[in-house]
């Protein structure tokens, strides 16, 4: 993993999940910048202003869902790495995520755990 | 709002997210049973009188069928899977496939619906129980048909107590199946439940990196 400090955008409508993902990332990378967005629209605005290196996305959110947001975010920030972190673990959802072909880590299952976050951070 | 007096915003968010995770597991189970994707709404939570609950979950059907399981122990709640009655046979047909003739399916409709409910509710309750580190006993599933308010009132019109209503809508587009999973929790026995949410938050925030 590169030593350079990175900027991470966490997109999740749950304040709890955002808080836990933030905590687990900062435990291993205290100097990283963490941004949070509660929905897809806010994520697009934030990504436009801050060009994050990594974006984690929940799928079921009010307003723009995580998959639509991911497609728009990838167009806006082509160099950002995207990962899905969701409770919606149906096979069909996994297939949709894989078919989009824009994710660095396809799908990490909630609840948020150290192992799940490490899966995303590994090889970043 | 009453909800703010009982649960602070972080406790509310934690409970809603737990329900979201639990329903994600339950939807994965249902999805395998029907070989189709199950769409989920964003979960909603509020405190209401039991008699108001039916209006709030957005059920517009005249009659619904439900499978209910009662949780006792760490917290007390009624967990329910609710479908429009008119779609019940279709759900069973989709689950069982074309292996049985229609008359046989009709005969076992109630039994099959009860088992479907049992599997889905247990996927949901089991996940909630693990996340809350709770100790529950889960009653046997019971199948009922009635209006949505009769179902949610538990056919006990005399009681109109304050309850915590957690609900999520789901649908299987291909078969035009829609349903609801609803938790109604008695507020009377709420303190031990709030304590378990707080214990979880303390573990998650102060533990050695172990998230939820």
What is the number of strand segments of chain A? 5
Element order of chain B: H for helix, E for strand: HHEEHEEHHHEEHEEH
Q: State the oligomer.
A: heterodimer
Looking at the structure, the CATH topology of chain B is: Chemotaxis protein chec
Q: Bin the strand percentage of chain B.
A: 25-35%
Task: Name a few traits of the molecule.
heterodimer; A: alpha/beta; Rossmann fold; 5-stranded parallel sheet; B: 212 residues; 8-stranded antiparallel sheet; globular
Explain what the structure shows.
The complex is a heterodimer of chains A (124) and B (212). In chain A, 44% of the residues lie in helices and 20% in strands. With 124 residues, chain A is of the alpha/beta class. Chain A has one domain: Rossmann fold, CATH 3.40.50. In chain A, strands 2-1-3-4-5 form a five-stranded parallel sheet, with helices on both faces. With 212 residues, chain B is α+β, with helices and mostly antiparallel strands. The longest helix of chain B is centred in the first third of the chain and has 26 residues. Chain B starts with a helix and ends in a 6-residue tail after the last helix.
Layout of SSEs?
The complex is a heterodimer of chains A (124) and B (212).
Chain A: E1 7-11, H1 15-28, E2 33-37, H2 40-50, E3 54-57, H3 66-76, E4 81-86, H4 91-100, E5 105-109, H5 114-121
Parallel strand pairs in A: 1-2, 1-3, 3-4, 4-5
Helix pairs in contact in A: 2-3
Chain B: H1 2-6, H2 9-34, E1 39-40, E2 44-49, H3 53-56, E3 64-73, E4 77-84, H4 88-96, H5 102-107, H6 109-132, E5 136-138, E6 142-146, H7 148-152, E7 162-172, E8 177-186, H8 191-206
Antiparallel strand pairs in B: 1-7, 2-7, 3-4, 3-5, 3-6, 4-8, 7-8
């Amino acid at each position: 993993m590169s030593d350079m400090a990175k900027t991470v955008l966490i997109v999740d409508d749950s304040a709890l999940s955002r808080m836990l993902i933030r905590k687990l990332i900062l435990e291993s990378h205290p100097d990283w910048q963490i941004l949070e967005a509660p929905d897809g629209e806010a994520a697009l605005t934030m990504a436009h202003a801050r060009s994050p290196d990594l974006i984690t996305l929940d799928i079921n959110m009010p307003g723009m869902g995580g998959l639509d947001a991911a497609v728009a975010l990838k167009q806006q920030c082509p160099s950002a790495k995207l990962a899905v972190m969701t409770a919606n673990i149906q096979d069909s959802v996994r297939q949709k995520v894989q078919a989009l072909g824009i994710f660095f880590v396809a799908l990490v299952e909630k609840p948020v755990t150290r192992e799940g976050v490490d899966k995303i951070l590994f090889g970043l | 709002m009453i909800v703010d007096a009982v649960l602070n915003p972080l406790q509310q968010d934690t409970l809603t997210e737990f329900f979201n995770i639990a329903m994600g597991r339950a939807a994965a189970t249902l999805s395998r049973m029907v070989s189709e994707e199950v769409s989920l709404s964003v979960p909603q939570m509020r405190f209401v009188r039991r008699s108001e609950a039916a209006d709030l979950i957005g059920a517009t059907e005249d009659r619904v069928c439900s499978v209910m399981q009662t949780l006792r122990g760490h917290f007390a709640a009624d967990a329910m899977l609710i479908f429009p009655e008119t779609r019940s046979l279709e759900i069973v047909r989709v689950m069982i496939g074309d292996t049985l003739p229609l008359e046989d399916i009709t005969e076992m409709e109630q039994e099959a619906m009860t088992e479907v409910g049992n599997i889905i509710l247990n996927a949901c309750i089991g996940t909630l129980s693990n996340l809350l580190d709770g100790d529950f006993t889960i009653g046997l599933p019971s199948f009922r048909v009635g209006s949505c308010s009769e179902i949610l009132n538990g056919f006990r019109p005399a009681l109109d107590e304050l309850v915590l209503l957690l609900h999520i809508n789901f649908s299987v587009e291909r078969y035009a199946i829609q349903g609801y999973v609803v938790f109604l929790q008695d507020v009377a026995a709420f303190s031990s439940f709030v304590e378990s949410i707080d214990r979880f938050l303390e573990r998650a925030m102060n533990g050695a990196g172990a998230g939820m």
